[in-house]
Write a structure and sequence with these properties.
The protein has about 250 residues and is an alpha/beta fold. It has one domain: 4-Layer Sandwich (Purple Acid Phosphatase, chain A, domain 2). The protein contains five helices and 16 strands. It has a six-stranded mixed sheet, with no helix packed on it. Strand 15 and strand 16 form a beta hairpin. Helix 2 packs parallel to helix 3. The chain starts with a strand and ends with a strand.
Length: about 250
């Protein structure tokens, strides 16, 4: 018998603006998001949750959040969200909670322990996890040693081998990994921010970064560069035996 799965849709770095015509790197971010949404609907995949992993808006405008949240609400799937460096956490949270969406925090779903961390630093592109967030992470992992865990954040906790992009990583990544390494039930760490696909392992922990729904960054570029790749999203299947199956999909605008 196949182990049951929790199917998750990860959408990240949508960079929606209040102006419907605004572009990022030549891409209309609303149009590219809608192309991703159509692809998700056309796939006929039943998702149990959506993870929004930050940089949801380009300029932290309330109208941009409202447009994106209305579009996502039509999918009728529970949403988990966290802020990125382009977000204003207070605005994002104030609009997410009335929709009964999960904002940061943690959840137990289908035997999995999901921890969502806030790594955003106001006014900065790099990320930092605060001491209260670190305490929450450790306390929650210590309290549930038998549950397979996955940690979700915006900023990359490992270098991407790109000189310009690696100035904007999780600054206190050493402390982050010192906690993760103490808890063998952690099966994966998932992030956004880097606008590219990444899939690897560290000490048995699956590491996953996901393409943006708009512009893609050129992997391992020394200086800022846009890759000629289509918008994308990630499907994760969190299996009851602790394994993670995952696939990235790219779509035509």
């Amino acid at each position: 018998m196949q182990p049951t799965a929790l199917n998750v849709l990860q959408i990240t770095d949508t960079h929606i603006a209040a102006d419907p015509q605004e572009r990022l790197g030549g891409v209309n971010t609303r149009e590219s998001f809608l192309a991703v949404k159509r692809h998700v609907l056309d796939s006929n995949t039943n998702y149990d949750a959506i993870w929004l992993t930050g940089d949801l808006t380009a300029n932290s405008e309330q109208r941009a959040y409202e447009w994106l949240f209305d579009e996502l609400g039509e999918l009728d799937v529970p949403v988990y969200c966290l802020p990125g460096n382009h977000d204003v956490a207070q605005t994002m949270r104030s609009l997410a909670l009335p929709r009964q969406w999960q904002y940061c925090g943690e959840q137990r779903v289908s035997g999995w322990h999901i921890v969502l961390l806030d790594s955003a630093v106001v006014g900065e592109a790099y990320g930092t996890i605060s001491e209260p967030e670190f305490e929450r992470l450790e306390t929650s992992l210590a309290a549930r040693p038998q549950a397979s865990a996955i940690v979700v954040l915006h900023h990359n906790p490992i270098p991407m081998r790109s000189r310009w992009l690696d100035t904007m990583t999780l600054a206190n990544h050493t402390q982050f990994w010192s906690i993760i390494d103490r808890y063998s039930q952690v099966r994966g760490v998932v992030w956004g921010h880097v606008h590219q696909n990444y899939d690897s392992f560290r000490n048995g922990v699956r590491l996953l970064a996901t393409p943006s729904t708009c512009v893609q960054f050129d992997a391992r570029a020394r200086n800022f560069a846009i890759a000629p790749l289509a918008p994308g999203y990630r499907r994760l299947s969190l299996m009851s035996d602790g394994k993670i199956d995952s696939e990235v999909f790219r779509v035509r605008r």
